[in-house]
Amino acid sequence: MMNSLAGAKTKKKLVMTMSNSLSGQLRQIGLCAVPAQLDDFLARATKARWSPHQVLEEVARAEMAERSRRSLERRLRLSGVKHFKPMADFDWAWPTQIERNIIERALTLDFLGEARNLVLMGGNGLGKTMIAQNICHQAVLAGHSVLFRSAAALLEELHRQTPEGRHRKLRTYANVGLLCVDEVGYLSFDDKSADLLYEVINRRYERKSVILTTNRPFKEWNEVFPNAACIVTLLDRLLHHADVTVIEGDSYRVRESEQETAARRRKK
């Protein structure tokens, strides 16, 4: 009896050792899904009596699904979209003016294939950033590379680079599938910043799409970039192939704040 138990334990250890060894070997050749669930995979293959062809099919299917998942996670992380409210939570009735058809068409991503730009213009708290984030998220899900940056962050990143580093960054901004420049107009920038933004827009001109959000009409961009000589040319490139939609109304954030304040007072 003791010999039988000892033999069973030895056999179990041997199987575990072989399984661990096989798992390591699979990882060494670049597999990631199957090694993580090798025991379960082998059990399912044995129970279902998979043929060698079926085993290879299942390995390929599992690895493709895992790589697709990891690619999506990586692209979402690199995009910089971060947390946002879904469009299902957007109150279309709140703005006094909004071109819903343009926004819903943009959410289908048809403008990407045409290298068209989208400019969302309007006051604070009307959902411009939320809409842009949703479009960018849809683009990531569809397999596009995306970068979502505030104007301040994008320009600061370019400013602090060495000439060689700036060249690399400009190339990245030029070639990413979809670039979103958020909150142009919230801060004032010098003429060097205007030149850098122009360089980004110009490198993408008629090649790749840009989403840009701004709280300032274009006639006021000279106040955003005082003394900049390139504003007219920048806008010419940005707007040549673009849908510009203006959102008007009161700040939704102010409305939410007032509702929260009123709710707290009622509780008292």
Q: How would you describe this protein?
A:
There is one protein chain. The chain has 268 residues and is an alpha/beta fold. It has two domains: 2-74, no CATH class; 87-255, P-loop containing nucleotide triphosphate hydrolases (Rossmann fold, 3-Layer(aba) Sandwich). Helices cover 60% and strands 11% of the residues. The chain has 13 helices and five strands. It has helices spanning 2-28, 33-36, 38-48, 52-79, 100-107, 110-113, 128-141, 151-159, 163-175, 191-204, 221-224, 231-240, 252-267, and strands at 117-122, 146-150, 178-184, 209-214, 242-247. Strands 2-3-4-1-5 form a five-stranded parallel sheet, sandwiched between helices. Helix 10 (191-204) links the parallel strand 3 (178-184) and strand 4. Helix 9 packs across helix 10.
Summarize the model shown:
By secondary structure, the chain is an alpha/beta fold. It has helices spanning 2-28, 33-36, 38-48, 52-79, 100-107, 110-113, 128-141, 151-159, 163-175, 191-204, 221-224, 231-240, 252-267, and strands spanning 117-122, 146-150, 178-184, 209-214, 242-247.
CATH class of the largest domain: Alpha Beta
Report strand %: 5-15%
Helix % is 55-70%
Please give the largest β-sheet: 5 strands, parallel
Structural class: alpha/beta
Give the averaged pLDDT, no decimals.
89
Q: What sort of overall outline do the alpha carbons produce when their principal axes are compared?
A: globular
The total count of strands amounts to 5
How many separate structural domains?
Answer: 2
Tell me the span between the first and last alpha carbons: 75 Å
Question: CATH superfamily assignment of the largest domain?
Answer: P-loop containing nucleotide triphosphate hydrolases
